[in-house]
Amino acid sequence: xxxxxxxxxxxxxxxxxxxxxxxxxxxxxxxxxxxxxxxxxxxxxxxxxxxxxxxxxxxxxxxxxxxxxxxxxxxxxxxxxxxxxxxxxxxxxxxxxxxxxxxxxxxxxxxxxx
Amino acid sequence: xxxxxxxxxxxxxxxxxxxxxxxxxxxxxxxxxxxxxxxxxxxxxxxxxxxxxxxxxxxxxxxxxxxxxxxxxxxxxxxxxxxxxxxxxxxxxxxxxxxxxxxxxxxxxx
Lengths: 114, 110
Hints:
The complex is a heterodimer of chains A (114) and B (110). By secondary structure, chain A is mainly beta. Helices cover 0% and strands 50% of the residues of chain A. The model of chain A has no long low-confidence stretch (mean pLDDT 93). Chain B has 110 residues and is an all-beta fold. Chain B contains no helices and eleven strands. Chain B has strands spanning 4-7, 10-14, 19-25, 31-37, 44-49, 55-58, 61-65, 71-76, 85-92, 99-100, 104-109. In chain B, strands 2, 4, 5, 9, 10 and 11 form a six-stranded mixed sheet that branches. The A-B interface holds A 31, 35, 41-45, 48, 55-56, 58-59, 91, 100-108 and B 1, 30-31, 33, 35, 37, 41-45, 48, 50, 88, 90, 92, 95-103.
């Protein structure tokens, strides 16, 4: 069964450093998403991406964040200058279709900012 | 902005007992989805409800979408230890983005 993959599984970085989180969505999916989940809390929407551009973004997704689909398979989330409060699990998800569809989540990247 | 509340936050049940979690949105939803997240895992899609008053069943799980499309519930009959996890509702309005509820963490005692 196709699945979303994410690398790395755990990233430790120092405050102020840049990090890039990588995702490979399911190959025939058209919509891609990033979510974050602070430990023990709910899943929060960051951004959606379709047709090589941002479709929607939340208030959390400020100028420190950017997304990119550098090739036909990868989808990346970059945090330019990490803060302590960026520590969280980051999930990538993908879906297909033009209407509301189930989203397939990857296993996540745990980001720890020290 | 859209807010989705979910109660209870925690629920402990004996194996075999029923379980229900409730979801309420501050705005009318175009659809609602339910996800399950096992401890240490990622959200896994369970179901999507689109129509007002819709009821869907998956084996021991029953999902309802309110008539006003602002609330939803998930009911599990005769819980099993494999039902352990956090259940999230997630709604979307006019935009595609999903707003997740705070989740209900279910513990099933053997």
